[in-house]
């Protein structure tokens, strides 16, 4: 999601386009801690930055054309802000959500409902309503044990018109306090759901081959990553 963000700021987040295959370099004062190669021709680099609130985490996504999206979440996995490149747009979480997203509630009760507003640099304001529920299933991907969730969310304009919605499954890592995409369906507002799957395939840590890569390697002959993904993934 998201919509206007100046190119110079995007470059400061490592979002320069077009980009050639290489290593991701986070902004000054930031440290990359995880690279995730995923289905759907996407690779994501996760990083943290000095000066951010404790628990804040960033993610920058790359497809075959280079970086296309970056976002920041807080310790409760709330969608704090995001940046798109084409066109450059910044979107932020509105103050005082009606029902803030809570990673802690999801872990303690098995379910989290949320209602919050988003605003972007073009002046668009929207509302997001949805839920995450632990299914009780665990999956092991590349040696990492994750918990499966079922999710659904709908984003509307202030008049209640549906702009986009999604439903399906995601995965969480309780200690990392991160969501990862899974098999799901996406509706861009026309009422037709399209299947997508951005599930992780490889988790790559500092010192391992492929860490900080900006070149996706899975499904790239079949698809160019262009569909947005649910907020927390």
Automatic annotation (TrEMBL):
Residues 1-21 form the signal peptide. The keyword Signal applies. Keywords: Signal. This is DUF3298 domain-containing protein. It comes from Paragemmobacter amnigenus.
